Amino acid sequence: MTGERNRRRGGGLVLGAVLTAGLLAGCGGDGGATPPASTTVAGAGTVTTASDGVQEVTLQTQDDYVFTPDHFTVAPGKVRVTVVNAAKQLTHNFTFPSGKGPAPIAEDIPLLAPGEKRTIEFSVEQPGDYQFVCSFHTQLGQVGTMTVSG
Q1: Residue 83 and residue 91: Cα distance in Å, rounded?
Q2: Does domain 48-148 have CATH number 2.40.10.220?
Q3: Which of 8, 38, 62, 86 stands the most exposed, by the fewest C-beta atoms within 10 Å?
Q4: Whole-angstrom Cα distance, residue 62 to residue 48?
Q5: pTM, full prediction
Q6: How crowded is the C-beta side of 111, counted as CA atoms within 13 Å?
Q7: pLDDT in tens, the chain (150 residues)
Q8: Where along the chain do its domains lie?
């Protein structure tokens, strides 16, 4: 009887793990299949200065719940961030949550469908680390940091 009970208990654990994995993978709507790898856009993460003097950086997101890169550094001043959604299935956004940096940054990208690219521009003066997130997938670890050097 004890052996049968342990087999049932073990089967329940395996079933629970399979269901949990299916729920997490199913967020993309593809029935749990692993999304195909995507190529990183050229120059992603490289901070450059445009002809108008604004610091520019491009970030990429896709079906893997990460920003590429998830960290970049700028000097105090004007910043232009372009986010490219290379995802095949997932919609993302890009925001600086209040209280996650030395000063608030109000500009955000509220919705970024698969294949879309959007740009925001803002000024930062206070040095420090500013967290940015996809608020749809924060619990899955889609966070990053913009460091403003001092």
Answers
A1: 12
A2: no
A3: 8
A4: 23
A5: 0.73
A6: 1
A7: 555 555 444 444 443 433 333 334 334 444 444 444 556 777 788 999 999 999 999 999 999 999 999 999 999 999 999 999 999 999 999 999 999 999 999 999 999 999 999 999 999 999 999 999 999 999 999 999 999 998
A8: 1-34, 48-148
